[in-house]
Write a structure and sequence with these properties.
alpha+beta; DNA primase DNAg catalytic core, N-terminal domain; Dna Topoisomerase Vi A Subunit, Chain: A, domain 2; 5 domains; four-stranded antiparallel β-sheet; 15 strands
Length: 646
């Protein structure tokens, strides 16, 4: 809505900034000079004990010499009440006694009509408040007392009572001059389909007024006192004032509290919100008996970047949290998310606060789960992931869920978090539960890997470390290859903790560019692992190092080194198990196993010799230069396969 020229100037001229600010601060009387409009107070925007917040009432501006906050009356209301520009103007206009301008005669007529509807709602709130003190409300008062609500709480939240009378409110409002059609249009009464007299919509219920962000009554919520009532909770129907999918209970006070830094907590119902506020968590709201809607999520994000969703700890509460994930994923953007506060089973926030006090809830808030954790829990909880097919199904489902995130950068970060969780889950999976126990004893080098320069790198402890260095060096050049061999990397038992840490980091960030990955490694693990790999002469002759852009060469080096590591470790596993069998009676089976394992190792050594011959001639037929031959000879000598005549 555009404002006519001069409206804001007139508004500022009618207001005293000192009076507007004075509602939020305590003036330092020793430092202030009210006669000159020179006022000082502790700043309302940051914690301090000295009066560094200055208001120049004559000029209409404020400035804090501590946090450097500055502005006029409109910006002050925006910041302290967490309002947008037009809402702040409207608040100040009411205070100054100015009518907000209408766009046209029809708009003014509509605004006047809404004003009359609000007046009817306010009259209903007052009527139900008075009814709570009558004899008919005895049971309701007892219930509220059992829930711990004293007179101060009843007054603060304007809780009332609707007796069983069919037309009690209707007649009371008519007596005050409210038109019949306004009573019905405001949702306070309903008209039967048969055309008979309208009747009160709320009967035999405790009444909770619902106000908008500006504090105006827009609807009612009612809790039935009778166990056989048609609905335990009843809200006002959709009206020109009220749309429950776009409204929040306790919206205005929660917005102001969130603007002061309190955590914004989303609970399920009225009583939870009241309990939270009374326990000191004043930025608490509820979505009025429905699951959180997209419009309500937008309202929440206007108040806080990461609202805390505190749902009941029962199956229904967890289900509501899971459904909220589906709503939120497509709307996620950088800096806007959700965290989940999971109540103990069978408890809601009100139960927890009464049992353990504010400290018990604060502990759960401190441990609130980010949404990615709850997404992972939803997709993995109760699932048996003991086969490649089931794991692949999980991967497909997670990819589909992450695909709902429109923000590419945020989607990438979610992918990183999911990969880390997947890696930890499968790495920790015990034997017999789908974990990879190592290769079968007959594992042998694949034909495609027998041309690898380090085909025998798995031969012995030193050779294993060399093969591991091939894998890590190649993946640092082409991180995406880690995803192609992810299960094999997860199952690999690294010879050194440093190598395992580097491999885990590469897997977790396999979608990053090589330069970014190296920066991350240096940040997390230091530069030593990178410098060590870069300085290994043994790797200098590898095709993937001589041609860093050759992805296929890197892939061949990685798969070849993995094959040889698996063959060697399979061989050792067989020897170890065979040694245990030797303690008993030797058998033909034992003899076969030893022979078979020896043959596998011999084939690995033979492939190594073939690789040695291959490296005598480069791809273009030229001889490998002196440096590369010396490096190759050194590698072969260290592996115990050198040629003394060479």
């Amino acid at each position: 809505m555009s404002l006519p020229p001069g409206f804001l100037d007139e508004l500022r001229s009618r207001l005293s900034l000192a009076q507007v600010v004075g509602r939020k601060v305590m003036w330092d009387t020793r430092k202030s000079n009210q006669a000159k409009g020179d006022m000082w107070a502790p700043c309302p925007f940051h914690q301090e004990k000295t009066a560094s917040f200055h208001v120049d009432d004559r000029k209409g501006f404020y400035y804090c010499f501590g946090c450097h906050a500055k502005g006029d009356a409109i910006s002050f209301v925006r910041e302290t009440e967490n309002a947008d520009f037009m809402e702040a103007v409207e608040i100040l206009a009411r205070e100054a006694g100015m009518q907000m301008p209408a766009r046209d005669p029809q708009a003014q007529e509509k605004a006047d009509h809404l004003t009359r509807l609000r007046e009817a709602m306010e009259a209903a709130v007052r009527h139900y408040r008075m009814q709570l003190s009558t004899a008919a409300a005895g049971e309701a008062r007892d219930y509220l007392a059992r829930r711990g609500l004293d007179e101060a709480a009843l007054a603060r939240f304007e809780i009332g009572f609707a007796p069983e009378a069919r037309r009690g409110l209707f007649e009371a409002l008519r007596a005050k001059g409210v038109e019949d059609r306004l009573i019905v249009e405001a949702g306070l009464a309903a008209e039967p389909d048969d055309g008979s007299a309208a009747y009160d919509r709320f009967r035999g219920r405790i009444v909770f007024p619902i106000r908008d962000a500006q504090g105006r009554a827009i609807g009612l919520g009612g809790r039935a006192m009778r166990a056989d009532a048609r609905a335990k909770y009843l809200n006002s129907p959709a009206t020109p004032l009220f749309d429950k999918s776009r409204s929040l209970y306790n919206h205005g006070p929660a917005r102001e509290a969130a603007g002061k830094g309190q955590p914004l907590i989303v609970a399920e119902g009225y009583m939870d919100v009241i309990a939270l506020v009374r326990a000191g968590f004043e930025a608490a709201v509820a979505p009025l008996g429905t699951a959180v809607t997209g419009d309500q999520l937008d309202l929440l994000w206007r108040m806080a970047d990461e609202p805390l969703v505190a749902l009941d700890g029962d199956r229904a509460g967890i289900g509501a949290a899971y459904r909220l994930i589906d709503l939120t994923l497509p709307k996620l953007r950088a800096g806007k998310g959700l965290r989940f506060v999971l109540m103990p089973p069978g408890q809601d926030p009100d139960d927890l606060l009464r049992a353990g006090g504010a400290g018990a809830l604060q502990k759960l808030i401190d441990d609130a789960l980010p949404m990615v954790d709850l997404l992972w829990r939803r997709e993995t909880e109760g699932r048996v992931l003991d086969s490649p097919e089931r794991r692949a199904a999980l991967d497909a489902k997670l990819r589909a869920e992450l695909g709902k995130i429109e923000d590419a950068g945020l989607r990438r970060h979610y992918g990183e978090a999911i990969r880390e969780k997947r890696y930890q889950l499968f790495r920790a999976r015990p034997k017999g539960q789908g974990a990879r126990r190592g290769p079968p004893p007959e594992a042998q080098p694949r034909p495609t890997t027998q041309r690898s320069a380090l085909a025998a790198a798995a031969e012995g402890p030193g050779g294993e470390r060399l093969a591991e260095s091939v894998i890590l060096s190649a993946l640092l050049l082409h991180p995406a290859l880690a995803l192609e061999v992810e299960p094999r990397l997860e199952a690999l038992e690294w010879s050194e903790p440093g190598a395992a840490a580097l491999a885990e980091l590469i897997l977790a960030h396999a979608d990053e560019a090589p330069e970014a990955l190296r920066d991350r490694v240096a940040q997390v693990l230091g530069t030593e692992p990178l410098e060590r790999l870069d300085g290994l002469d043994h790797l200098a002759v590898m095709p993937f190092r001589r041609r860093p852009a050759d992805r296929d060469a890197a892939r061949q080096a990685v798969t070849g080194a993995l094959d040889r590591l698996e063959a060697e470790r399979g061989h050792r596993m067989e020897l170890s198990e065979a040694e245990e069998d030797i303690a008993g009676l030797a058998s033909e089976t034992l003899t076969w196993r030893l022979r078979d394992a020896a043959e596998a190792r011999q084939k690995a050594a033979q492939a190594m010799q073939e690789d040695r011959a291959d490296y005598e001639v480069a791809e273009n037929g030229a001889r490998i230069d002196r440096r590369e031959r010396e490096a190759m000879a050194k590698m072969l000598e260290e592996l115990g396969l050198g040629d003394s005549d060479r």
